[in-house]
Amino acid sequence: MFDAEKQLLNSDGAVEKQLRPHHEQLGRATRFRRRTVTVLLSLAALAFVFVAPALLPRAPSTSDTDDLQSSAGGLIDLTRLFFNALSTDHLRTNLEYYTSGTHAAGANKTQAAHTLEYFKKQGIDAEIVEYFPWLNRPLSQRVAVFNSTTHEVLFEALLREDAIPGDPASVDPNNLAPFHAYSADGNVTGQLVYANYGSNDDFNALEQAGISVNDAVVIVRYGKVHSSVKVHAAELAGARGVLIYSDPKDDGYTKGKDYPVGPWRPESSIRRDSVLLHRIHPGDPLTPGYPSTKNSQRIDPDNAVNLCRIPSLPLSYRDALPLLSAIQNHGVAASNISSSWVGGLTSKVIEYWTGPSTLEVNLENRVEYRTVAIQNVVGRIKGWEDPGQAVIIGNHRDAWSSGASDPSSGSAVLLELARVFSELGKLGWRPRRTIILGSWDAAEYGLIGSTEWVEENIDWLRASAVAYVNVGAAVGGNAFAVTASPVFQNLLYAVTKQVPYPHSNETVYDVWLRQSLATSLDADASAKSRPAISPFELNGDTIAFAMHAGISSVDMGFVGSAGAQHSNFDSFKRMVSFVDPDMQLHLAIAQVWGLLAIRLADDPVLDLCTMCYAKDIRHIIRQFEKQMRLRRSQPRWQTQ
Asked: In a 3-state reduction of DSSP, which class is residue 91?
């Protein structure tokens, strides 16, 4: 069971650990290809069954058009009208409001009330929907290096972020102490071991190098795999606790100037995160599979399968530097394992080593768990022809700090879409299908708000939801990125071809394609002729909709300068100084998001590409087979 669990945590997917005889492989390959053909045909048939109702033609109607009838009797182009109604001034005002203070899960009731009143002001039927999940809050934290013989403390981490002159978000009295959502309460001590990104492959590499993490405190850097995977992998390997730091090689000064001179992560920045194993299941861990309403039955936390059992804390690279120095020249040089194990702190005159250290590290993480009320805000614009069919657009509202990029940029756009949809309504437009606007709470803890809402409305959603379109961090850089069900391929390409890219003569599609080609590792020629739409990464509010309710979903936004994510420096000042000074990227994502919602809600025949789904499955299977052949050719697998 131990090996199976570790393989499932592998960032590249589970693979067989031992090779079988050649004739057995051939037999399996033949059976696999037969099953693959069957699966492809079945999936294509299922996709047609689900999508067919939306593809059936309807009788013409006086309202069955993408145009609005003007009072003069002429036709007004709805897309042009929608684009012209959007306002960067409104977007800026919305962003200023949402970034005016720290608004963690369950502690943003004022913002929930504001969102509700804003929807109602636009004439949108709206309500607050409360749930009561089990959440933790930080009490006290400590990371110290000491000599176990003399008990002398040689270093104690500051565990705080610096104040930035002129940036009020950095000194907000409500800013949270550094901690991990759903981290285990505990006080542990052990020798320090460095495990790169903390993936299962990284722990395997340590084992092969003869380095044990049993009873150790492990230090890893953010990136590659989710924080929960890092902690759980360390737990399975026998570690006592985990420290996760932000390395400058990934989002700090090696990328460019750090904040406040540039957009990248400064030395004191601490990235908070959740370590809930949401890939097992997202949402409240004590109400698995059903909503955490006030009177719901809760399971014992000891029986929750998606909780890690060892304590963990986030660190700045300023605090990580003395820790990494303590293991220098101990164990194996990280460069001897792989060059990818070497981070960006080499410029600080240290080398990366595995350890274990001779000194001891104490990790204390004191947290308090309790049931907390969270508030989703849900608005509805009723469809004129198919009100029982719904297109859902959503964004999470809670943040670890002021959260300018993640998620307040998306919250600002959601309010602007509500306003503009209302303005279109005053001119006589109503969507063919119902549009639902969701402002979710407690996403940062483990996608709690959206998951609980899906669990409570699962039967209706499976019967009536056409699509879910999520924008979490709307603007974090200038590169457009999409994860989506393949059925949306044609529609996404068509919409982005209509949206101008800021400060250029190109469209979002043009820039998206160019950026995809620049970063693509895919050798498939067809993949190079179109922008990349990535499979779901299981990190956003699309999870419950797509994986639990089976609703075709999209998650998108502008990414790139993630040097402040989940820290006190993800502020309005940083956003307007370095990321989107004139709000043109906010405007562009509003145009894409809104136009996609209008198309999904209004088109009499939805352009959902079932063949794209089948082609993507075939491509993924070919990539998987290629990966399996590559792994089986590697000597390290042949010797196990």
From this structure: helix
Sequential DSSP letters for 267-278 = TT----EE---T
Span 357-392, pLDDT tens digits:
999 999 999 999 999 999 999 999 999 999 999 999
pLDDT recorded at residue 616: 83
The model's pTM: 0.87
Segment 449-460, tens digit of pLDDT = 999 999 999 999
pLDDT, residue 315, reads: 98
Largest distance between two CA atoms of the chain: 89
Strands 186-194 and 217-221: parallel
d(CA 372, CA 486): 37
Type of residue at 63: S
Tokens 């890092």 found at: 230
For CA atoms 216, 285, 393, 63, give the dihedral sign.
Answer: positive
Q: Which residues contact 215 (CB under 8 A, 6 or more apart)?
A: 190, 191, 238, 239, 240
User: In 542-589, where do the E strands start and end?
Assistant: 553-559
Rg (CA), the chain: 25
3-state secondary structure 150-188: CCCEEEECCCCCCCCCCCHHHHCCCCCCCCEECCCCEEE
pLDDT for position 34: 42
The residue among 310, 331, 315 whose CA lies nearest residue 239 is: 310
Closest by Cα among 559, 574, 494 to 263: 574
Count the Cβ atoms, other than its own, within 10 Å of residue 231.
30
Q: Are 607 and 494 in contact (CB under 8 A)?
A: yes
Residue 28 has pLDDT above 50, yes or no: no
Q: Which amino acid is at 378?
A: V
Query: How many other C-beta atoms are found inside a 10 Å radius of the C-beta of residue 482?
Result: 19
Could you tell me whether strands 125-131 and 374-381 are parallel, antiparallel, or unpaired per DSSP bridges?
antiparallel
Cα separation, 477 vs 400, in Å, equals 19
- In the 8-state DSSP scheme, what is residue 340? G
User: How buried is 473 (Cβ within 10 angstroms: 0-12 exposed, 13-18 middle, 19+ buried)?
Assistant: buried
DSSP string, 479-523: EEEEEE-GGGHHHHHHHHTTSBPTTSSSBHHHHHHHHHHHH----
